[in-house]
Amino acid sequence: MTEAGRRTGRDETEEERADRKWGELIQEVRVAQTGVQILFGFLLTVVFQPKYVRLTDTDQVIYIVTVVLGACATGALIGPVSLHRLVSGRRVKPQAVRLASRLTFVGLLLLLATMTSSLLLILRVATHDAYVPYLVTGVVAWYLVCWYGLPLWARSKHTDRSDDQDD
Fold first, then answer.
1. pTM for the full predicted model
2. Which of 4, 24, 32, 117 could join 66 in a cystine, given CB atoms 3.0 to 4.6 angstroms apart?
3. Are 82 and 6 in contact (CB under 8 A)?
4. What pLDDT sits at residue 51?
5. How many CB atoms lie within 10 A of CB 21?
6. Three-state SS sequence of the chain
7. Residue pair 55/125 in contact by the 8 Å Cβ criterion
8. Are 77 and 107 in contact (CB under 8 A)?
9. What is the pLDDT of residue 159?
10. Contact by Cβ (8 Å): 80, 29
């Protein structure tokens, strides 16, 4: 494609860009929120199961850490909704989008940690085998490739450095 024929981006104001980015962010958050809320809800019921009292001390600690991570992930992923509601109409959408984007990223990291510790606990209880850490490591590696590796690779391969903007 010739330099003259290459698109240089959208012709939008800062407010229009913030509106578009907010809509995109909320769609992304909806997917993650649903997953973390289902996982967190499930985790909350585990302590009331008869088998919980038979867990080893280590497994109970893993469970507690998992629940706390799930609670933190839920808070971070619901945070953008509260942020939007509290600053709506205050003419700070570009700043709110940046903050909500960061909160969402933290929420995804916490979701990764929650899923990792959940998987560790479930596999420890289900198998009691020495290969559990290797299975968990493999799954975490897969999450890292899917959630961060491929997106960062695509960003570096297909983004012009002059187009980079803080989201």
1. 0.85
2. 117
3. no
4. 92
5. 18
6. CCCCCCCCCCCCCHHHHHHHHHHHHHHHHHHHHHHHHHHHHHHHHHCCCHHHHHCCHHHHHHHHHHHHHHHHHHHHHHHHHHHHHHHCCCCCHHHHHHHHHHHHHHHHHHHHHHHHHHHHHHHHHHHCCCCHHHHHHHHHHHHHHHHHHHHHHHHHHHCCHHHCCCC
7. yes
8. yes
9. 87
10. yes
How far is 10 from 64, CA to CA, in rounded Å? 47
What's the pLDDT tens digit per position in 39-53?
Answer: 999 999 999 999 999
Burial 74-90 (b: 16+ CB within 10 A, else e): bebbbbbeebbeeeeee
Give 106-135 pLDDT, tens digit per residue: 999 999 999 999 999 999 999 989 999 999
For residues 144 and 28, what is the distance between their CA atoms, to the nearest angstrom?
17
- The band of 7, judged by pLDDT with boundaries at 50, 70 and 90, is very low
Tokens of 92: 């700070």
Q: pLDDT tens for residues 133-152? A: 999 999 999 999 999 999 99
Residue 1: per-residue pLDDT: 45
At 3, which amino acid appears?
E
Q: How far apart are the first and last CA of the chain?
A: 27
